[in-house]
Amino acid sequence: MSASAVPAVPESMTIPAVPGQVREARAFVARVLGQAHPHVSLALLLCSELVTNSVRHSGSAVPGGVVTVTVVAGEKVVQVKVTDRIGDGVPFLPSAASAGGDAEGGRGMRLVDALSARWGYERGGGSATTWFELTRD
């Protein structure tokens, strides 16, 4: 993302990698964006999915592990990044069949893919960052 596309300064918060902290991540995103932001509800949903994945599946999912949430709220683009300690897997889109029926998981990345303008992940230096962007015209 070019600097001109997102002129805002990134704001970050690091939280313990435990399920109860997902709520804190959502509250942080809501504070950064403000309740009047047109993408606040969607950003909260997708951030919750990424943080939940980090808490459950990353290398941070150990006692003392942490997750960092970074928000960049530009005029036309909102980017949310979730960084954790690198784990064995990478984010992927499960098949629709694995996310169907009574399955308890498998829908998070499908939501991120369907509802964000774009998303991706980066790995390096012992950490992994999964991110999404929301845009407005």
CATH topology: Heat Shock Protein 90
CATH architecture: 2-Layer Sandwich
The CATH H-level homologous superfamily: Histidine kinase-like ATPase, C-terminal domain
Determine the structural class based on helices, strands and strand pairing. Answer: alpha+beta
Q: What is the typical, i.e. mean, pLDDT?
A: 86
Largest sheet: 5 strands, antiparallel
Number of strands: 5
Shape: globular
Beta-strand percentage range: 25-35%
Number of alpha- plus pi-helical segments: 3
Cα-to-Cα separation, first versus last residue: 16 Å
Uncertain segments are none
Give me the strand/helix succession: EHHEEHEE
Helix content: 25-40%
Overall number of structural domains = 1
- How do the strands line up in the largest sheet? 1-2-3-5-4
- Rounded Rg: 14 Å
Which CATH top level class fits?
Alpha Beta
Polypeptide structure, described:
- The structure is a single chain.
- With 137 residues, this protein is α+β, with helices and mostly antiparallel strands.
- The protein has a single domain, classed as Heat Shock Protein 90 (2-Layer Sandwich), CATH 3.30.565.
- It is built from three helices and five strands; from the N terminus they run E-H-H-E-E-H-E-E.
- A five-stranded antiparallel sheet has the order 1-2-3-5-4, with helices on one face.
- Strand 4 and strand 5 form a beta hairpin.
- Helix 1 (22-33) packs antiparallel against helix 2 and helix 2 runs antiparallel to helix 3.
- The two termini are 16 Å apart.
